[in-house]
Design goal:
With 448 residues, this protein is mainly alpha-helical. The chain has one domain (102-198, 219-445). The protein contains 16 helices and no strands. It has helices spanning 17-30, 34-49, 55-66, 72-115, 119-147, 151-165, 171-188, 226-250, 255-267, 273-288, 294-305, 314-325, 332-358, 369-398, 409-423, 429-445.
C-alpha cells in the first residue's frame, strides 16, 4: 500500500472507502434545504451518527469553506472527504454530493424545454415561480439580520443595489469594491474595537458525545511545497482540455465557448451563494447576451429549488436552455446537453481546486482580522445584490404585464404564503416549493 503524500491526511482504518462512497451518494440524494440544511445533514451524518470527524475538525473545515466563493456545502463535503481519504476522498465526496442533482435537473430541464408550454406544466411552474419570490425576500431578511451590524454595512448594501439595479455595474466590480471598502474601514479602525462580522453561521445540532469521534492523524507535519502546484497544474489541465476541444470543434466565437469562459469567471465571484450569482447571470445571460429570457431564468431557479444539492445548480439549467435556444449547427438537445455540461464543469471545477489546493495550507487565514473585514464588506454588498434579484423576479412574476398590466393576485398570494411559511412557521423549503407547485397545478386544472 502506497504511503500517503506528506500534505494529505491519512485514511482512517475505521472508515472503509466504500462506506464513505455510500454515504456521499446518500447525502447527494437527501441534501435539500439550501446551505443551512445541507451543512446540518453533513454534520448529523459525519459527526453525530458515525463519529468520522470530531466536532472541532468539522467546524474548522466549515469555517474555511465559508471564506471561499462557490457552494460552501459542496466544498465542505469535499473537505470532509479529503480529511478522511485524501485527494480521492475529496473528489468522491464533492462529485457525489452534486451528481444526483445534475441528473435530476437535466431531466427537469428537458421536460421544461419540451413540455413547458403545456397548461399543467405551466401551472406547476407558475406556483414554483411565486414561491421563489417569497424565498428570495426571506433570504434578504435572513442574511441581512446576520450581516448588517454597522452603519457602513447599510451604506454598502444600498450602494450595491443602486450600482446593479440602476447603473448596471458588473457584479464582480461590485464585489471587489465592497471587499476593498471593508478592508479600508478595518485599517482605519483600531484592532481592539474591530469585531469582524463573519459570514452567516449555520446552527448545527449538538456535538457528538465525548470519546465518540476518532482523532485524525493529519500525516507528517512537513509539507512539500510542490504538492499544491501539482494539484493546480492538474486542475488547469482539466480546464484547458474541454476548452481546446470546444475551440477545435465549434470555434472560439461559438456560444458554448463563450459559456465556458463566462461561467468559469462566475465561479470565482460567487460570494453570497446562488441568489447573488444568479443576479450576475441575469445581468449577463439575459440582458447582455440574450441567451435566455427573464421568464426562463425565474423558471430555472424554481426548478433548482425542487432538486437536492446546491442551489447553484440553477446555472446548469441556464446552460441547458442557452444551448436549446441557440443550437447553431447542432440539434437543440445536443446543444442543450453540451451547454449543461460546459456550465456544470466550469462551475464546479474551481470549487474542487479551492479545497484541494488551499485546505492543507491556507486554513490559518480563518482568524485574520483584515480578511474577515473584507468579507464582511462583501456580505453587506450581497444584500443589495439579492434585493435587486428580489425586485427583478418579483416584478416579472407578480406584475407580468408591467406596472400598467395589473397584479397577478394568485402569484402575490402564493409568494406571501411562502414567505410566511418560511419566516414564521419555519417549514422546510422543499415542502414550501412543492406546496406552491401543487397550488399552481390546482389552478391550471380548475375550469376558468
Amino acid at each position: 500500500m502506497r504511503r500517503e503524500e506528506a500534505s494529505e491526511p491519512r485514511a482512517l482504518p475505521a472508515v472503509p472507502f466504500r462506506d464513505a462512497l455510500r454515504l456521499w451518494l446518500k447525502i447527494g440524494f437527501i441534501s435539500f434545504g439550501g446551505p443551512a440544511g445541507q451543512i446540518a445533514i453533513l454534520h448529523r451524518e459525519i459527526v453525530e451518527r458515525r463519529g468520522w470527524l470530531s466536532e472541532g475538525r468539522f467546524l474548522h473545515a466549515l469555517n474555511y469553506c465559508m471564506l471561499l466563493p462557490g457552494p460552501e456545502a459542496q466544498q465542505l463535503a469535499t473537505y470532509s472527504g479529503w480529511l478522511l481519504h485524501g485527494t480521492r476522498g475529496g473528489l468522491a465526496a464533492g462529485a457525489l454530493f452534486v451528481a444526483p442533482s445534475v441528473l435530476i435537473l437535466f431531466a427537469l430541464s428537458y421536460g421544461y424545454a419540451v413540455f413547458g408550454a403545456l397548461s399543467l406544466a405551466s401551472g406547476l411552474l407558475t406556483g414554483f415561480k411565486a414561491v421563489v419570490v417569497g424565498i428570495i425576500v426571506e433570504a434578504v431578511l435572513r442574511i441581512g439580520r446576520r450581516a448588517m451590524r454597522r452603519s457602513e454595512h447599510f451604506v454598502l448594501a444600498a450602494g450595491a443595489f443602486v450600482a446593479i439595479y440602476f447603473v448596471h455595474v458588473p457584479f464582480p466590480a461590485i464585489i471587489l469594491a465592497a471587499a476593498l471598502t471593508g478592508l479600508a474601514i478595518a485599517r482605519m479602525r483600531p484592532a481592539a474595537s474591530d469585531a469582524p462580522v463573519a459570514p452567516e453561521q449555520t446552527e448545527l445540532p449538538a456535538p457528538a458525545r465525548a470519546g465518540h469521534s476518532p482523532t485524525l492523524d493529519p500525516g507528517p507535519a512537513g509539507r512539500t511545497a510542490s504538492r499544491p502546484l501539482r494539484v493546480l497544474a492538474v486542475g488547469l489541465a482539466l480546464w484547458a482540455l474541454p476548452c481546446g476541444v470546444l475551440a477545435a470543434w465549434l470555434g472560439w466565437e461559438s456560444i458554448p465557448m463563450k459559456q465556458y469562459f463566462f461561467f468559469t469567471g462566475a465561479a470565482f465571484v460567487t460570494f453570497g451563494g446562488a441568489y447573488a450569482v444568479l443576479a450576475y447571470v441575469m445581468q449577463a445571460a439575459v440582458h447582455a447576451h440574450a441567451w435566455i429570457t427573464p421568464a426562463q431564468a425565474v423558471d430555472g431557479l424554481a426548478l433548482a429549488e425542487t432538486t437536492p444539492g446546491p442551489l447553484i445548480m440553477v446555472l446548469q439549467f441556464v446552460g441547458f436552455m442557452t444551448g436549446w435556444n441557440n443550437p447553431g449547427n447542432l440539434s437543440p438537445l445536443a446543444a442543450a446537453t453540451l451547454g449543461a455540461f460546459v456550465t456544470t464543469w466550469a462551475t464546479f471545477l474551481p470549487s474542487f481546486l479551492f479545497v484541494l489546493v488551499g485546505a492543507p495550507s491556507v486554513e490559518v487565514l480563518r482568524g485574520n482580522r483584515l480578511l474577515a473585514a473584507a468579507l464582511s464588506g462583501v456580505t453587506a454588498a450581497v444584500i443589495g445584490v439579492v434585493l435587486n434579484l428580489a425586485l427583478v423576479f418579483g416584478t416579472a412574476v407578480i406584475l407580468p404585464g408591467g406596472p400598467s398590466g395589473g397584479i397577478d393576485w394568485f402569484a402575490a398570494l402564493v409568494a406571501g404564503a411562502a414567505f410566511v411559511a418560511l419566516r414564521g412557521l419555519r417549514i422546510d423549503t422543499i415542502w414550501v416549493v412543492l406546496g406552491g407547485g401543487a397550488a399552481g397545478l390546482l389552478r391550471a386544472a380548475l375550469p376558468v
